[in-house]
Specification:
Elements (H helix, E strand, L loop, with lengths): L1 H50 L7 H10 L1 H12 L4
Helix pairs in contact: 1-2, 1-3, 2-3
Length: 85
């Protein structure tokens, strides 16, 4: 009886750890894509400035690009086009 409960407890532990690592892998993959997108967006700001498109380096612009990456930069460029920024 004790061996059966021990085996059942061990099985539950292994399944719980497997589930935890599957979820952690997906979360880290998602966060990795977000971080990469943000770094590329910030690099694109500086490349645009080198080309001559003067994207303002204000706190709201940097936060938008850091949080949303390339789509955030696209929104900033659209706002610049329409004269909002």
């Amino acid at each position: 009886m004790d061996i059966l409960l021990l085996a059942l407890g061990l099985l539950i532990l292994v399944l719980a750890l497997a589930l935890f690592f599957m979820i952690a892998k997906r979360v880290l993959s998602f966060l990795g894509r977000i971080v990469l997108n943000s770094i590329i967006g910030l690099l694109l700001i500086f490349l645009l400035r080198l080309v001559g498109i003067m994207v303002p380096l204000t706190l709201p612009v940097l936060i938008a690009v850091a949080l949303f990456g390339i789509p955030g930069l696209a929104v900033v460029l659209i706002f610049m086009f329409f004269g909002v920024i």
